[in-house]
Amino acid sequence: MLILGIDTSCDDTSCGVVRAGRVVLSNIVSSQFDIHARYGGVVPEIASRKHVEMIIPVVTEALEKAGADLGDLGGVAVTRGPGLLGSLLVGVSFAKSLAYGLGLPFAAANHLEAHIFANFVGPEVPAFPVLNLVVSGGHSDLILMRSFGQYEVLGRTRDDAAGEAFDKVAREMGLPYPGGPFLDKMAQKGDGKACPFPHPKMSGNPFDFSFSGLKTRAVQEFESRGRKQDVIPDLCASFQRAVVRELLYHVPRLLEETSSKSFAISGGVASNSLLRSEARRLCEDLGVPLFIPPKDLCTDNGAMVATAGYYMLREGLLSGACTDASSSLPLLPWEDLKGGTRL
Ligand code: KG4
Ligand code: ZN
């Protein structure tokens, strides 16, 4: 079964066509980086207008690249939230109309679950229970999945998301937008031990994250060294090392306590070279299978939504006509989504 998946949750208009939730036939992303770069961050109003302009060309290109036409589709999936409301509305309205017009089943996924399902693309899928680390520009969450659609959030960020912290530190250092990938490249030229960052102390849930203190310290350190260009590689490497240490800090204990059979990392920050290598090293030591998607499936894309939609439809979860975009959508267990009707 071919599923067409659409994501317009932030500043990328994306559409992918995936066969049987496993084989990516196309995955087209129209990025708005250049447009938002001059503002140093995403401008929601501009993002939604650009989605309106790009949605038809992107969907058309995804179908062409997949060698499919509308008649070949078995379902339509979309990201419903969380994200920028105006941006989400474009994708949801378009996908819902397309499914209705074609008489196809429609699945509306949570953006976090779509990131998680990027690890279900391909021949090998994570064994349950799987501990997920979802790290993006808006989230840093540790989510246990005991089976399809059974989510337990074990930890989350109290302040900035990891990607957000990367982007803000990069911006302070004058690196291009979005900062994460540029900081990653810069860090490869520096010494990660040059500037030690303390482990943030927090009360309450021990598995939560906090990145704003690390971010502030990186900026203060840059200031105290006279904002000199030659300190940037060492500072980037040290900051990145601290963020990666935090992201993996609780993983061994959580894997053990939850008897997880696999560990999966997803979201834009899963592209980070140090996070990928450190996670690989950790999982080899622990003897736990590690799943990280290829980089084009880490950042926002339509193929991960198509895969989430495939599994939702396989479980009989249909999203109906009342499905709407939601900027703050919680991660809902599939048990709560049962009983939906066709459009
Ligand atoms: O998942 P995503 O595409 O969008 C959201 O759902 O937020 O993630 C985007 C985030 C941005 O903050 C971006 O800077 C970060 O992922 N990112 C990276 C890298 N590539 C993308 N952060 C660190 N290192 C990277 N290589
Ligand atoms: Zn995302």
Could you walk me through the main structural features you see in this protein, from its secondary elements to its overall organization?
Helices cover 41% and strands 18% of the residues. The protein is α/β, with parallel strands linked by helices and 343 residues long. The chain has a five-stranded mixed β-sheet with strand order 3-2-1-4-5, sandwiched between helices. The protein has a five-stranded mixed β-sheet with strand order 8-7-6-9-10. The chain is globular. The two termini are 19 Å apart. Bound molecules: 5'-O-[(R)-(carboxyoxy)(hydroxy)phosphoryl]adenosine and zinc ion. Zinc ion binds at residues 111, 115, 136, 267-268, 300.
Taken from the alpha-carbon principal axes, the silhouette is globular
Strand content: 15-25%
Give the structural class.
alpha/beta
The molecules bound to the chains, other than polymers, are: 5'-O-[(R)-(carboxyoxy)(hydroxy)phosphoryl]adenosine, zinc ion
Strand order of the largest sheet: 3-2-1-4-5
Radius of gyration, in Å, reads 20 Å
Largest sheet features: 5 strands, mixed
Counted by DSSP, the helix tally is: 12
Low-confidence stretches: none
Beginning-to-end CA distance, first to last residue: 19 Å
Mean residue pLDDT: 97
Count every beta strand, where a strand is a DSSP E run of 2 or more residues.
10
What are the salient characteristics of this protein?
343 residues, alpha/beta, five-stranded mixed β-sheet, 10 strands, 41% helix, 18% strand, binds 5'-O-[(R)-(carboxyoxy)(hydroxy)phosphoryl]adenosine, binds zinc ion
